[in-house]
Design brief:
The structure is a homodimer of 268-residue chains. Chain A is α/β, with parallel strands linked by helices. The first copy, chain A, has ten helices and nine strands.
Chain lengths: 268, 268
Amino acid sequence: MNFSNIRIVLVETSHSGNIGSAARAMMNMGLTRLVLVKPRQWPSQDAISMAVSAVSLLETAVVVDTLEEAVADCHVVIGTSARLRTMPIPLLDPEQCAAKALSMPPPQQVALVFGREISGLTNAELHRCHYHVHIPVNPDYSSLNLAAAVMVLCYELRKYALTRPQLLPVPATLHGNKLDDGGAWDQEPATAEELDRYLTHLEAVLIRLDFHKPQYKRPLMLRLRRLYQRLQLDKMEVSILRGMLTATEQALRAGKFPVENPTNTSDS
Amino acid sequence: MNFSNIRIVLVETSHSGNIGSAARAMMNMGLTRLVLVKPRQWPSQDAISMAVSAVSLLETAVVVDTLEEAVADCHVVIGTSARLRTMPIPLLDPEQCAAKALSMPPPQQVALVFGREISGLTNAELHRCHYHVHIPVNPDYSSLNLAAAVMVLCYELRKYALTRPQLLPVPATLHGNKLDDGGAWDQEPATAEELDRYLTHLEAVLIRLDFHKPQYKRPLMLRLRRLYQRLQLDKMEVSILRGMLTATEQALRAGKFPVENPTNTSDS
């Protein structure tokens, strides 16, 4: 069973004891990669106490400052969400989450992201996720302990891997990556960081084109992010898209498109 | 979703905080009935802290002295076990555990039993269970936190109930109980206490018959317990079996069976 490409990301955990409990749950289920985004206290004696003998996992935990850093090299990012969103991201249940994660074998990288104990993930963080996962809870009492949530998702990963061993390991080569439907693909998938760079580039060009007007605070870029995250772009496609942007910029600089009548309705 | 007939039984929990965490996990998944067998400390401030707003569940928790009392009125008792047994009891995985529990609708009673943090359930306690349930864990790191184990089994109950709503609620009447295979049954199932009384009666008669010799310390009665627990006896059948024992006793008293050549090989 190979979970070496699946990381658990805990964002701004308040109670370090929960990090220890989460580490123990991960180790119970065979996961080993823990990434902490700005834990309130680290290192922490509480975490060590609660981890019991999973303390090795705390020692190898990676600590970063932002979710972007935590998932920069990931190909699929799945965030836990208890909330319904006004602009919904594709929603998985824990079993579907396991299926999705295990459909991306190494060297592809997968992140399962858990928010703050009280407030969860911010909207901006939720929008960085390709998928959301919702643990079915009693609607009258939906406040899950962080480590309990980690346990449920890791348990489903292990269960899925145990009952569908044919899925693992899938040898992934540069030109033999697998898609969700099991079909082969000819290019490596793009990482979250590569997509981010493309979106930053796209935004700059759209502003230059006067199509995107940040001062209006419309969710255009969020909608485009969601659109491109759904696509699971490969590296070649990102390269082509960025080439188109660069060509547009060159044309703008050369004065080929003197934007005289800018579009006014850019998004909804 | 009706889990009113399913109780979580925690046996001799050392750390009361775990009871609070377990209560929270139960409430997340919609379970409400908690039974504590000799908790080390009760009531407990640690339990209240960890339960967060599931504290109502602690207030209605039933505290008893023995597992026998905790499950006396139960029709199915499922115990968590990390160990392989020399005399194995039928073993379920968490999903099968949920299916089994939900196949016994109210007014039938189901217990899920969790042992001590360090040492689990004793052999005697494990033998009181009709089934064992094993959570698939990393064999190199199998020590599950108590509340994490409660979470996994309660999560599977909720998941099973949500995905197979046709199972719930099944109206159960005196003459319309359901069996595992969905077929109707004409009699109410016997409780754990009724089976215990039968086994006590049986043992007395077997000793009187000189078939069972407790001084030899053979596991005859354990084997018979396992056998009868597998049967899921109904009340009428227990009544018939006990009638046979009583008839045997009467015959013995009347001297009809002067046990002259007692059997020597009673069990293995």
